[in-house]
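ESCALATION

Customer reports they have been waiting on this structure for their group meeting. Please prioritize. Original submission:
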Amino acid sequence: MIGILSIDFDYFINASSQARDMYFPKGSDEIPENKLKSVWEERYLKYPELKKIGVIDDFHFLKKFVKELKIPKENFMKADSHKYIKSIIEKLPEKSQFKIVNIDFHHDYYHYYRGNDYYNCGNWLRRVLEERPDTKVKWIRREDSQIYCLDGIFPFEHTDDIKSVYNEKFDYIFLCKSPEWTPPHLNSKFEELCRTIEQDTILYSNMFSSVS
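Update from on-call: job pushed to the front of the queue and completed.
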């Protein structure tokens, strides 16, 4: 079983579901970058308290956890949108079975489809399961994450215990920022997590090369 650790940075933002609905832009991963920047500027002007939002303790837990993983650097990918996880999945043989452990504020099993992109940040998991129905899924969510979709309650394993990652094995790590739902003043925290993963993967790859 191939293990994929999928991380959406929006999970770590210290804001309730209600606060996100109030403060964050309404949109998707198809908002142009220049427009998104101006939208966030407007949100900061309207809600100055937005700048006080930080990250939850799980952020520091995950930093420590990923340091214990031994992932080759070529098996780590970072991106803005979650839809780009398909770049990892497309590398895997069609007959291989894999498990996605998704740390995310949203379940990403939505039906919606917009624009020209068959995959988007909200439906990528549904697309993966349509194409590879043998895929195993575990969603690590926040306590107040929306657990419903058009099918009813999210139909796969889910938990609000991030420490359950210790029960899993991982071969790949995918990390996305989701800039539509990550206030720009937290970009440095996203990069901090990236550096932690990158340093560990480079260290492991160098150790492996020296042994070879």
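Sent to customer with the following note: DSSP finds six helices and eight strands in the chain.
Escalation resolved.
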